[in-house]
C-alpha cells in the first residue's frame, strides 16, 4: 500500500505564488481572456450596429433637413418631396398588435393544453408541432401568404386581399411558437402545490386555471406576448409580400398598406447610398431599432413584477 | 507530520452580516474534531472558510487567520488552488463527477501531471481501498459513478478526495443523507483515516460526534461557545449553553 | 345551482382549449402538407444537383444547396466558439450586478433585431468597409451576428442547469476554474448545447433577408473537382459570392424568367422545409439519446 | 484591478484589429484586375464585379457565364450581384464594384458631380408595356387614359369602355427605375404620388402574378416577362413590338446601362465589348426579351429628347 510519494510538507514559500507560474495559473488566465474576448466582440458588434444605423438614420434630420415632426406625423410619403413615415409606423403597429391579439390567446390555449389539460401526451404532440412552426423560414411563409392567404381574403372577405389583415394572419402564425413556448415554461414553473390546493377547495379545473394559475404567472405570460410582438415588429420578407406596400394609412384591414420593414425591403436596394430617400429608409431602420429596445425594456419590467 | 493547523479570530461576513464571529480553534494532528450546534450557527460556513471555498460565493468575505505551520492560508497572496490541493472536502449530498468510477478518482492525480497508467491504477485502487469501496466496485470501474448507491457515491467522493493525498479532510454532514448501514461504514472509515490525516467534521448527529471525534466544539449564533475533548463535552461541559444543547432542551 | 354553472363553464373551457390546440396542429400539418406536396413532385436527383437555368426550364438548385450547407458550416465555425465563450462568461465569470444585467439586456436586444437591419449593416461594414465583397464569409459573419445572442443564451442556460455541486467538487479538488468549466461542467452541459446549436442551425438555414446584401444573390459556376480554397471557382473558397437556397427561393419567385420558376420555387421550399424538419427532429432525438447516455444510472429524477 | 486587466486588454486588441481592417479596405476594394496580362487578348485574368438592377441580372449573369466559358477569357471570373439600380450606382461610384447595372440614367439617382464621373455603356434596350388582368375587356389605352388611371382620376373600367369593375393598380415602388421609365415615357409625368389602395411590388415576377390573379388589375411589365397569363394593352394604338420600338414609334423603352467609373480596366472593357458583340446581341439579348442596341434607329439622351440615328 505505497503512499503516492511523501506528502509535500507545507512550508511557507510553498504556498506563496511562486514566480514561475503554475500550470493552473495559465489555464485560468486563458479561460478568462477567451471568454472576455467573446463578450467584448459581441458588445462591439452591437454597439457598431447601433452606431451605424443611428448615424445614417439621423442624417435625414440633420443633414437633409427633414423635420422630425414631418417624419413622424406626416401622412404623405413621396420621396424627394415629403417624407411622412406615419403610414408605415401605424402599419407596423397595427400588424404587430393584431398579430399579438390573435397569437396571444391561441398560444395561451396551446400552453394550457400542454401543461394543464393533457400534460403527458399533449406535450409530446404540441411541443414538436410548435417548434416545427418556428423552423419554417420567413421566405416560405411569405409565399404561402401570397398564394393562399391573400386569395382567400380577396375571395371570402373582400377587398384586395392584401393589407393589414393578411399581414397579421401571417405574422400570428410566425410568432405563435415564441409565445407558446414562453407561456408553457411559465405555466410549468408554477409550484405544484398551488393547483392541488385550489382543486382541494372544490374548484373546477377552469376555475383553478382562470382564478389561480393565470393570475400568478400573468407577468410571464405577458412577457411571451411582448417577445412575440418584438419578433413580429421586425419581420421583413414575409410581411412585404402580403401587405401590398401602398405608402398610405389604409382605409380598411383589407386595403393595401405598408410597414416599416416592408418599405425598407422594397426600396433600400433601389436607392443610392447617401441620397435623402436612402437616409429616410435608414431612419426607419432606426425606429425599428428603438422599438426593439422598448420591447426588451418592457420585458424587463414584466420580469421584475414576476417574482414568484 | 505534526504541523500546527488552526484558526485565529476567523470571521466570515455575508455582505455586512457576520455569520462567523472571531473564532480561534486549533486542530491537533491525527485527530478528528467535530463541530456541533443548532442549524444556522455558522459551523458549515466556518468549515467552508478553511479551504477558502467561501471565496466562490461573491459577497462572502473572510477575515482573521488560518494558520498552517506558520503560513496564513487566508493571506490574499496564498495560491488558493495550491491550498485546496492540500485540503479535501466532502459534502452532505454526494457529488461524484458525471464520469466513470475510475475517472472520478484518477481526475485529481491526472490534473497534477500523473500520466502513467500503471501509477494511476495504483492510486485508484489505493484510494478505493482506503474508502472501503474497492471490493464493491473493483470489477466495474468503467461504469458511470451515478450507477452507485447513495452510500457508495459518498465513499467514492471520499476516495476522490484521498486520491490527491491531502493533509486535512473536511466533512460537511457526510452521512446525514445516508441510510444507517452506509452511515456506519462512513464512521468506521473516519476513525481509520484519522491516523493518516486531520479530519474536521460538521454534524447534527451528536451520537455520531461522540463516536468518531476526539475533540468537539459547540457553535451557537456564529460564536464558539466551548471546545474540549469529546467525552468531556458530552459528560459535563463547562458552559450552561452547551449543557442545554447536549441534553436536547432546545435547538 | 352555482356548481352546475361552474361545471358547465369548465366543460366549455376545456373544449375551447382543446379546439385551439388542435387548430394549431392542423395549421402546421396544413402548412407542411401544402409546402411539401406542392414541391415534392418537382424534386428529383437532377433538380437537386444541377445548376439553375436563367431562361430555359429544368433548372436545379445544386449550387444553392451546397452554398446553404457550406454557409451553415462557416457560420457555426464562427458562432459556436464565440457563442459558447460568451455564454460561459455570462454563466460563470460575470459577477451578478449592474454590468452583467446591462450586457444581458444588450444581448437580448440584438436577438430581436430585424434581420434586414443586420443585412444592411453587413453590406456597409463587411462587404464595403472590410472589403470582403459579396462573399460567403460576409454572409457567415452577418448570420453569426444574427445568431450569437441565441447561442449565448442557450449556452448560459445549459451551464446554469448543471448541478452546483459539480463546481464545488471541482474547486475542493484544487482545480482551476477554467479546468472545471471545460472538463467537468462542459461534458454535462453538452447535450443541451448540441440541441441548442442544431436548433440555431435550422434558423440559419432558413434565413434570407440578412444574406441578400452580404452573401449576394448569384453564385459563379462551381467546379466541384477543384478543392483549393483560393481559386475563385472552387466550391470551398470563402471569398466567393454564394446564393443560398432561401435567397434563391426569393429570387426565383420574384425575378424568375424560366417557365417553370413556380415549380422550382415550390421544390426548393419543400427541400428547405424538409431539411429544417430533419434539423429539429435530429436535435430532439440527439438530446434525448445524450441525456439517457449521461444519466445511465438507475437514478430517476 | 487584476480582474479587469484581461477585459481591458481584449478591448484594446479588438480596436486595433478593427482599425487595421478599416484601413485596408481601399486597397482591395477595387475589384478591377490590375495585373491584366498586357500582351495578347487571351492572357486576361482577374475578376469583374457587376452590381445593380435585379431586372438586368438575368441578362448580365447569362452573358457572364458565356464569357467565362469562352476559353479566350478562361482566367476571368464575372460576378453579377443584384440589390437594385441604386445599390449598383452607389457601389460603382464608390469604387466597390467595376460595373453598376442600372435601368435609368445615372443622373436620376446620383447627384450631378458623382454622375459625371461615370461612363455609360448602353448594352440593350428594354421596352415596357401596360398589362391588364385577362378579365378586363379593354385592349387599347391612350396616353391620357393611362394618366387618368395612374393619377386616380378614373377608378372604374366602365369609364374606359370596359365592364363595371374597380381598377386595381399594381405599381412599382417610388424608387424603382422601371417605374421612373414608365412614368416618364408612357405618362409624360414624373414622380407621380402613390395612390391609396394601389399595390406595390418591386419584382416583375410578383407583378405578373398579381395582375394575372387580381380581377380588374393593371400594371406594367418588361417584354421579357410577358406570357399568356396577362393581357397586353396597346399604347395609343401602337403595339409594343420590337420593330415599333426600333423605329421609335413605341416610346416606352429605356436603355440598360452598365456604368463604369472612368474608363474601364482592360478586363472590364473586354467584358463590355463582349456584351456589345453581335454574338451576344443577336442571341442572349433577344432570347431574354430585350432589344439589341445595334438595332435601334433612334437614340435618346438623359433628358429624353429623341434623335433619328
TrEMBL record, chain B:
It comes from the Bacteria. It holds the Pfam family ABC_tran. Residues 5-246 form the ABC transporter domain. GO terms for molecular function: ATP binding; ATP hydrolysis activity; phosphate transmembrane transporter activity. Keywords: ATP-binding, Cell membrane, Membrane, Nucleotide-binding, Phosphate transport, Translocase, Transport. InterPro entries: AAA+_ATPase (IPR003593), ABC_transporter-like_ATP-bd (IPR003439), ABC_transporter-like_CS (IPR017871), P-loop_NTPase (IPR027417), PstB-like (IPR005670). GO terms for biological process: phosphate ion transmembrane transport. GO terms for cellular component: membrane. PANTHER family: ABC TRANSPORTER I FAMILY MEMBER 17, PHOSPHATE IMPORT ATP-BINDING PROTEIN PSTB 2. NCBIfam families: 3a0107s01c2. This is Phosphate ABC transporter ATP-binding protein. It comes from Paenibacillus lemnae. The gene is pstB.
From TrEMBL, chain D:
GO terms for cellular component: plasma membrane. It comes from the Bacteria. Keywords: Cell membrane, Lipoprotein, Membrane, Palmitate, Phosphate transport, Signal, Transport. Its main location: membrane. PROSITE patterns: PROKAR_LIPOPROTEIN. Pfam families: PBP_like_2 (PF12849). InterPro entries: PBP_domain, Phos-bd, Phosphate_ABC_transporter. One of its GO terms (molecular function) is phosphate ion binding. It is a lipid-anchor. Residues 39-279 form the PBP domain. The keyword Membrane applies. This is Phosphate-binding protein. It comes from Paenibacillus lemnae.
